[in-house]
Amino acid sequence: QAKEAGKNRCFFFHEDTDSMSRDMLKTEYQLHRAIQENELHLVYQPQVDTSTGQLQGVEALVRWSHPERGEILPEEFLPVAEKVGLMAELENWVVRTASQQAAAWNHDGVQYGKMAVNLSGSFLKRPDFATDLITIMAENNCPAGCIELEITEGFILHGANQVIRELHRLKAGGFSLAMDDFGTGYSSLSYLRKLPIDKLKIDKQFIKDIVDDDGSQKIVSAVIAMAKSLGLTVTAEGVETRMQAEILRFKECDQLQGFLFERPMAVSEFERLYASTGTG
Ligand code: C2E
Ligand code: MG
Ligand code: MG
Ligand code: MG
Prior knowledge:
280 residues; 8-stranded mixed β-barrel; 49% helix; globular
């Protein structure tokens, strides 16, 4: 038996595993520091009306300016934050920062439409997330009506009823709700009726192939038709080419977001482009 345990222990200290957990510890330590030392920042990507091109909203996306590694994308550090239990702290920072930015733009008369903020599945697992969000908005003098919360279908797997109740409280409190990455998750269509959502965002994987792939085109058409019949706004993510935009316009997709229009950008860049074009 001792031999077996020894074997297992050997497995534990296998080189790859060891260096992997060391990397994880290092990243964990650095993420703590990142949140405390202001190494995180948000970039903002416009969402535009398909037929007029007018700005309808901006999506806040988190970035980590690492002192040695440069800018790190969320897909690299959010899973680590999740794993080491830093997600709550990180997302609180995101929500606070986005609401402060929205309040500042409100004050300065910069038109941005809605400020869209992503919430992870683990955020939605917190028992009082609606109260937390409402409190953060009040603290930062940001009306809930300025904020659109983007959620994904993942939460449906755990404790959906509790989450749905909280989402209804947020909706009643004035927030808008969008279902992000639509088509990639569990997409239990029956849940769509129970959720107080305003918008569906079609995942970029379907947009990527829309020009050449008949299947993607049919899925996009079906999602748009369904969204409209439910009275929801529909946004396409990841629009990179004129041809994709043209097809989406033909299919009467309401809003477009993607590199064809703008990349996610820093506050200063956004203000340079949009601060003077507002009418109010
Ligand atoms: P998402 O919410 O679906 O955000 C859209 C992603 O698509 C962003 O990636 C954006 O930069 C990228 N994108 C926009 N236009 C195009 C395009 O034309 N082509 C392509 N190929 N990509 C485009 P990003 O910023 O790397 O974020 C990735 C994901 O990380 C997000 O997907 C979201 O799920 C998550 N995320 C980002 N910021 C936050 C945050 O503050 N909180 C939480 N909980 N999640 C976040
Ligand atoms: Mg999103
Ligand atoms: Mg998305
Ligand atoms: Mg995504």
